[in-house]
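Example (one chain per record):
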Amino acid sequence: MSSFPQLRPLAVVSSLCLLVWSHAAFAGVEVFTTAGEPVVNAPASAAVVEMDAPARLDARISQDLPADPSRAKQALQSRMSDPEWQRTLEDYGRLYQGLARAWMLGIEKVPAVVVDSQYVVYGEPDVGRALEEIEQARGGQP
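Predicted structure:
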């Protein structure tokens, strides 16, 4: 492993924590990044989590709210009565699940490519290359 300094084994995640991550990606490839750190060559089956996505959703929801708190509350309540609000809530849940997953894995920086909750490569925006590094470090084992 010394030839791969950015490759680090991850701590074992308890089965209870895995239940929080309802997406089946923990059995494969997960990619953690931000909008400012785009990644390329991610497999279609990989879960790609943009760590700053919840903040962007917050900004979108609070866009154009009045400065007066009571008027802002009314405007937000009106938005919440819109049929699209349920989708927004689902988006929040999905986005925060990704953040929770990164926290459970102990992700230190982005981009991060994680395989099988055990191996991580930091700083490589080309997911294909990161996966090759992991495969080499594992001795070519699937």
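Caption: The CA atoms of residues 55 and 95 lie 10 Å apart.
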